[in-house]
Specification:
The complex is a heterodimer. Chain A is an alpha/beta fold. Chain A folds into 2 domains: 118 residues, Up-down Bundle (Glutathione S-transferase Yfyf (Class Pi), Chain A, domain 2), CATH 1.20.1050.140; 150 residues, Rossmann fold (3-Layer(aba) Sandwich). In chain A, β1, α1 and β2 form a beta-alpha-beta unit. By secondary structure, chain B is of the alpha/beta class. In chain B, the strands form 8 sheets. A 5-stranded parallel sheet of chain B has the order 5-2-1-13-24. Chain B has a 5-stranded parallel sheet with strand order 15-22-16-17-18. Chain B starts with 17 loop residues before the first helix and ends with a helix. Classes of the chains: A alpha/beta, B alpha/beta. At the A-B interface, loops of A face β19 of B.
Chain lengths: 291, 472
């Protein structure tokens, strides 16, 4: 099975490990991520502001490119890209007036023919968690995982429709398929601080601290996420948190594809863990998951 | 004059007709059709209608699907704004409905079908299995004392247990027990039979079958009441029913009630400890058009203040927090009740919604917002009480189809005209009252019960007058 794939900007830079591991794992699981040629910025959060016609032209072009190369499914790994592309696609599918405005402007024909899928959705709905479970080489036995959803993967729920907004299960089911143990984690859908990290780092630090304390407090060994911004906040802010709170227990924050790669026994040295502020390798060695 | 028709053909000969089982039907059947009214629903609204009609000389058949009358009010502890005991105010009414010479109670019954025309309806009623021959039963209660099965009781709302053979309350009217087939050891496993052994009059009948009967009435009053919004299924942000110390207001009533499972002691479900920090959340499922119900449930502001006060009467050093959107206290004496509660009991009202509840140790963490100060709030509570929305009672939709009633998107019946014909259904001869029309308090429900009975009388009088004119 081959899917059109939209990596997005961060996955070529800061979140390269999310991308690398995702592509490697897809090959192991028998599907191919075929990167769209000449892709542009997804539009980041701009389509969510008031005047978003112009900002939706970029994502619409990406969706039209997917359609024009004969694909009807577009896969993303980044929560932000997923949110923007999916919501733009909904507009193109359902809102005739805005659709004609945008398609006239970019001079392309597109009516929302493509389905935008998150990688997790491919695993759940296309591959199946049962098959994933059977493909796992190294079950994550004894690894207690806090599944951090953040906001953009789920909300607004009527548009995104990936899982329940208040009580999602896809991430926990994913961890169970890998043989790991998801811990109860009430802060899993709290805000990580998002872009506040740029102009009010204390806000982002406080948000991250509360989330991580809640994860550790519930016995988690590590936190997984799908979103480059969440990963950045939760991981990097720990530098400030330990400065203000000596008792704070640091905890590794990794991408879900990195954990998937471990379970599929891909070489740990290729997974880019050296980019993590809190190195997960000692934990993974301790659990016998990497050598 | 109508005959009682026994419809369950296969039990002919062994099955007594309902009239014989329960008695009293012969009186009902001996008056002309247009002097008879059926009231569907034996809560405070239906009881009020029935007694009013009875006092006016009409013969009334009060149909209730539970084993005894009293409805939701029977589950309440004390009522606002006077804090008088719900049972003390209700019981005289339930007893009156049971003893009234003009009122015949038909409990454990549900309406199955309607034919005929206004002034001369024929209604088919299903008599559910009670497994107790009430004609023989003296109501001595020995069976209840000896029953070895103890389990979840709908009436106690998970707050307490009930035996499999039970009455809904010690003051039940009629005060005769029924068996819950799903919990009865004999009926589920074929072993036990204790109640049959101890019954001094041999009233237990495990082989009892359901039966049907038909009655003719001139008018019908529908007062089927309300239920609580299914927050456990629909609001995972409040724990989805998985957190034991998060309960709804009706369950809290059972804890407060002197006849409840804790005999009125203020305890919490998880460990039976006395909660010292208690959080009430209003508008749970109400006033939330995007995901839940768009309407205001009208009683929650008042009963939450009442809950807080009753709690403080029992736990003097306890602290109460109440999340609210705004306080709606429009009844007589209601605003004074709120102000007095705040002043005397040092209640902390927080203007805003709670966003999430989760368990941490033996505490329930309440995350919310104070929208007046613009701050995020977190409270570690011992117990959280949700003022969940009022919704139409289960089965209201089916009844609407049987009776040909209109209902709105939330399932409440629609009155002919909200302002000027508030209890008319739009179908002549059928009247509506109480919470089946929309959320309301006891005072408004009783008022509508009386209004509906009055409208039914007007209708039946006009039917008789027309007949007399035809005869002339």
């Amino acid at each position: 099975m081959k899917y059109s794939y939209f990596p997005g900007c961060t996955l070529y830079t800061k979140a390269k490990k999310l991308d690398d591991a995702g592509r490697e794992c897809s090959r192991k699981l028998g599907f191919e991520l075929d990167e769209l040629p000449d892709w542009t910025c997804c539009g980041a959060t701009f389509p969510l502001t008031n005047d978003y016609h112009i900002a939706m032209s970029g994502p619409t072009r990406i969706l039209a490119d997917t359609k024009d190369r004969g694909d009807n499914k577009l896969v993303t790994l980044c929560s932000v890209c997923f949110n923007v592309l999916k919501r733009t696609n909904n507009v193109m599918r359902n809102d005739e007036e805005r659709r004609s405005k945008i398609t006239d402007f970019i001079e392309r024909q597109y009516h929302g023919e493509v389905d935008v899928l998150h990688y997790l959705q491919v695993l759940r709905d296309e591959i199946g968690f049962k098959v994933l479970q059977d493909t796992v080489v190294k079950p994550l036995a004894g690894l207690k995982v806090a599944c951090y959803y953040g906001c953009l993967l789920l909300r607004p729920v009527k548009e995104i429709a990936l899982d329940a907004m208040e009580n999602p299960t896809i991430f926990e089911d994913f961890v169970r398929a890998l043989g790991g143990e998801p811990v109860p984690f009430p802060y899993r859908i709290e805000c990580c601080g998002a872009f506040q990290t740029v102009h009010s780092m204390t806000t982002a630090t406080r948000c991250s601290r509360d989330i991580l304390r809640n994860a550790s407090g519930n016995g988690a060994d590590l936190v997984i996420t799908t979103c480059p911004l969440c990963q950045f906040n939760l991981d990097d802010r720990q530098a400030e948190i330990v400065q203000s709170d000596a008792a704070f227990k640091t905890i590794p924050v990794v991408y879900f594809t990195q954990l998937l790669a471990i379970a599929l026994d891909l070489p740990a040295e290729d997974l880019g863990f050296e980019r993590n502020l809190i190195d997960p390798l000692p934990l993974l060695r301790d659990k016998g998951l990497v050598s | 004059m109508a005959e009682i028709i026994e419809l369950s053909g296969e039990q002919k000969g062994e099955q007594l007709s309902c009239a014989c089982v329960f008695g009293g039907m012969s009186d009902f059947e001996s008056v002309p059709v247009d002097r008879r009214v059926m009231v569907i629903g034996g809560g405070i609204t239906g009881i009020t209608s029935a007694i009013d009609l009875g006092n006016a000389g009409y013969q009334v058949l009060l149909v209730e699907r539970l084993p005894s009358v009293g409805g939701r009010m029977l589950q309440l502890s004390e009522t606002f704004p006077t804090l008088d005991c719900a049972q003390c105010t209700l019981t005289p009414r339930t007893v009156e409905s049971g003893q009234h010479p003009k009122v015949t109670l038909k409990t454990s019954c549900e309406v199955e079908a309607l034919t005929g025309e206004p002034g001369n309806f024929t209604i088919r009623v299903r008599q559910k299995k009670t497994y107790v021959d009430w004609n023989k039963c003296t109501g001595c209660g020995t069976c209840i004392q000896k029953c070895p099965s103890n389990g979840i009781a709908m009436f106690e709302r998970d707050a307490g247990k009930m035996t499999a053979i039970y009455t809904l309350s010690p003051q039940a009217v009629p005060n005769k027990p029924v068996i819950d087939a799903e919990r009865c050891r004999y009926l589920t496993r074929g072993k036990c039979g204790v109640c049959a052994k101890v019954c001094p009059v041999g009233a237990i009948d495990y082989e009892q079958q359901e039966s049907f009967f038909e009655v003719q009435v001139g008018a019908i009053i529908v007062a089927t009441g309300f239920d609580i919004y299914d927050w456990k299924k629909k609001m995972p942000e409040f724990g989805g029913g998985e957190i034991p110390d998060v309960i709804d207001g009706l369950t809290f009533e059972r804890y407060l009630s002197a006849s409840g499972p804790s005999a009125g002691a203020m305890v919490r479900p998880s460990d039976g400890k006395t909660p010292k920090e208690i959080v009430f959340i209003q508008c749970v499922g109400s006033r939330n058009p995007e995901f839940h119900k768009s309407y205001c449930s009208r009683v929650c502001c008042m009963y939450t203040a009442k809950h807080a006060r009753l709690y403080k009467h029992k736990v003097h050093d306890g602290q109460v927090y109440i999340f609210y959107i705004d306080i709606r206290s429009t009844g007589k004496g209601y605003e004074q009740f709120i102000q007095q509660s705040v002043a005397e009991e040092e209640l902390i009202y927080i203007r805003g919604r709670a966003a999430r509840l989760y368990r941490e140790g033996d505490k329930v963490i309440v995350q919310g917002a104070d929208t007046l100060s613009g701050r995020k709030i977190e409270i570690a509570a011992d117990l959280v009480v949700l003022a969940a929305a009022m919704v139409p009672n289960e089965g209201a939709q089916e009844l609407a189809e049987i009776l040909g009633l209109q209902s709105n998107k939330d399932g409440f019946f629609i009155e002919e005209n909200y302002k000027l014909s508030p209890v008319e259904s739009g179908r002549p001869g059928i009247y509506l009252a109480g919470c089946c029309l929309g959320a309301k308090d006891i005072a408004d429900s009783a008022a509508q019960g009386s209004a509906a009975s009055s409208k039914a009388q007007v209708f039946l009088s006009s039917v008789r007058r027309n007949k007399q004119q035809e005869a002339v």
